[in-house]
Amino acid sequence: MAIAEYEKLDAMGLSALIAKRQLTVSEVLEEAIARAEKRNPEINAITVPLYDLARQTAKASSPAGPLAGAPFLLKDLGAPLAGTRTTGSSKLFADFVAPHDATIVARYRAAGLVTFGKSASPEMGLAPSTEPAMFGPCRNPWNLGYSSGGSSGGSAAAVAARILPMAHATDGGGSIRIPASACGLFGVKPTRARNPSGPDVGEGWGGQSVGHCVSISVRDSAALLDATAGPDIGDPYWAPPPAGKFIDEVGRDPGKLRVALCLEPWNGEPVDVECRQAAEDAAKLCQSLGHTVTIARPTFDADAFREATRVLVAANVYASLAARAKVIGKKLEATDAEPLTWSLAELGIKYTAADYAAAITTIHRVGRIVARFFVQHDILLTPTMCSPPWPLGVLTLSSKDTDGYLVAVNRSIAFTSLFNAAGNPAMSVPLHWAPSGLPVGVQFVAPFGDEARLFRLAAQLEEAKPWKDKRPAMIG
User: Looking at the domain 3-475, which fold is it?
Assistant: First the structure.
């Protein structure tokens, strides 16, 4: 198979050629591995290679399904694969070998995906950039001096570098949408609990975290969500069942949508001119496609929301570190984590159970406000971030410039984290590139449970302003 053909095909395209017996699973896998070996040294996106395991899987494959035989990467966080390391880029978990698959990983197996490695994450997924001390920084293929975003930056960098067309990602505050924006990819954060979190936990970060993927095409994302969506036995709650298959929504007329345009983030951070321009141009594109656009946004107590989110994240960070320290029989201490991770853990120690309960109440209150907003609006359109991708070094959890780090965090998550709290599905769509050559994503948010609406709109945008064939100069 010609190299150019591999890099032009999405996961469904590769799987279709396998189904037609024009390619074998092993041949497709070797194309992915060859690119990983050539390009990963430059971008540092794959931290745990699993090439031999993948080759065994490929040889034993009996492809069936729209994604069967497609190469895949799991994020090195929140997706244990039996018999392999899952580190979360944390020293405490450096030797953790998963005794079983996560439920979502089992569903990836059942879909016929061939996992050939783990992708880079910041320590415990805590930063909107992927620069862990354990593995070193992951670099943006569009400019190697810049961040690929986080916390799913490794997956995004690998897909942007066309090592593969789609990779696993998770999102607790923007960690699918931020790297999708930074790397010029399509990234959907599904509705809360659309995908299962088990079997070891019932939810992540008080229900704010959910897993899915970054991809070069809309249809890959829809097909993957079809393969993984739905509760597992014993899940504490789950998303409303969809009316049909998500893949069937791709190409379906979205109708005339009431789009609300929001250019001012709730935390008051300034918005870069390129990010503002990206959203305004997207609004004009929506109007040209027959949708109506008005200026509107939900309003709520932003300070209370920010504090509630801090409580939930800090408490969960400390709980995870403490539980792991107990398992391996050591006293938890500051040197067990990067400095800014430890700062969060210290907060988690100070907060009380009552603080946590109050935080949950605040988060739920905000979710109801957002839900009422969508009674009057079908879609909310915002910049994905307040800034184009950051230079490497700004968002490392080992930074000594804490103030600079916090400014960059707040400008990264200003538009995204609200919808982790509210649980709404949200997507970053690659519709803009800055004069510097760096991608700038645009976020679209739908009512709770309505990924179908996002996929219909995304496919319309993809047709109107295609992005799949835009590729970084490093790969030609």
Answer: Amidase signature (AS) enzymes (3.90.1300)
Q: Looking at the whole model, is its pTM more than 0.90?
A: yes
Q: Which helix (H) or strand (E) holds 261?
A: strand 258-261
Q: Is residue 76's pLDDT more than 60?
A: yes
Q: Which of 151, 181, 215, 399 is catalytic?
A: 151
Q: Is 75 among the residues known to form the active site?
A: yes
Segment 444-453 shows an average pLDDT of 98
Query: Alpha-carbon distance 427 to 450, whole Å?
Result: 12
400 catalytically annotated? no
| Active-site option among 15, 75, 118, 399 | 75
Handedness of CA 257, 258, 263, 268 (dihedral sign): negative
Burial of 135 (0-12, 13-18, 19+ CB in 10 A): buried
Considering 61, 148, 175, 412, which one is annotated as catalytic? 175
Tokens of 67: 């994604």
**Partners of 49 in beta bridges:** 117
| Residue whose C-alpha is closest to residue 450's, from 473, 422, 472 | 422
User: What is the pLDDT, as a whole number, of residue 370?
Assistant: 98
Which tokens in the block code for residue 45?
Answer: 């996106």
Catalytic-residue membership of 151: yes
E strands present in 109-252: 114-119, 139-140, 143-147, 166-171, 186-189, 210-215
pLDDT digits (tens, 9 = 90+) for 197-242: 999 999 999 999 999 999 999 999 999 999 999 999 999 999 999 9
Strand partners, 383: 442
Is the pLDDT at 129 greater than 70? The verdict is yes
Instruction: Scan for tokens 């590139």, then name that residue.
Output: 433
Paired with 440 in beta bridges are 432
The secondary structure of residue 85, as a DSSP letter, is B
The DSSP bridge partners found for residue 115 are: 72
Report the 10 Å Cβ neighbour count for 263.
Answer: 16
Q: Measured between alpha carbons, how far apart are the two ends of the chain, in Å?
A: 18
